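Folding Task

Wanted — backbone structure
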Amino acid sequence: MQTLPTNGVHLWLILMKAHEAMRRHAERHIHSLGIGFSDFAALEVLLHKGPLPVNEIGRLVRLTSGSMTTAVDRLEKKGMVERQNDPGDRRARVVHLTDAGKKLIECAFADHERAMEEAASGLSAEERTRLASLLKKLGRKAEELY
């Protein structure tokens, strides 16, 4: 059995390639649902986190404020979300899922979850647990350095 190099650069390259393959799979699947990636990401965050200001949605899905505002505008025109005044801060607006938006993202997310499960099916439950633990450990250490 051949031993693979384990230096930091090699690990980074493996991680980058694995991430890229998973990202491509996720994006292809999301697009097959007839939803753009940023729209899906915004709807998914609202489904799982509840109503949020546009800037917070953008922070969570890692999109610029301009891109996020455009996505929310698009979703609002389609009747998937609505902006409401923040009861705690009259200057702020909070984005809420509409019933139609909730129905769409619940179905789309369930389908996406199955697609991502398929992509991860090459790993056993034990391997997934170990990988998740190791990736978190790697990320924490890298984050410490900055």
Remarks:
- The longest strand covers residues 89-97.
